[in-house]
Amino acid sequence: MVLTLTVEKRSVTETMDKMWSIVLNLSALDGTEVVINKDFTLKYRSGQDVEEKVKALLTEMQEAIDDYKSEQAIFNHTKLDTAVTYLNNNLTG
Questions:
Q1: Confidence band for 1, pLDDT divided at 50, 70 and 90
Q2: Cβ count within 10 A of residue 57
Q3: Do residues 13 and 20 touch, judged by C-beta distance below 8 A?
Q4: DSSP secondary structure of 42-69
Q5: The total number of structural domains that make up the chain
Q6: Cα 66 from Cα 29, distance rounded (Å)
Q7: Which of 9, 11, 15, 25 is nearest to 46 (CA)?
Q8: Whole-prediction pTM value?
């Protein structure tokens, strides 16, 4: 499954003197359907090494993508379809 990924800037807010909260949004499309739309917050103090913060953010975003793909693998697995069919065929009302 190939997702179309987009990261956009949401906001920058000064939370304390020289301390900033930067919010970025990760959006993922599976075809035309939005399957991930999640904000990620980066805490930044003026003068800090931004590269470390960005690498941590990359890890967080990648985890969200990997989680979605794992969920879809289970959801689309034939064993789950078989279980649902079995339940539908064996329930009585």
A1: confident
A2: 17
A3: yes
A4: EEEETTS-HHHHHHHHHHHHHHHHHHHH
A5: 1
A6: 14
A7: 15
A8: 0.84
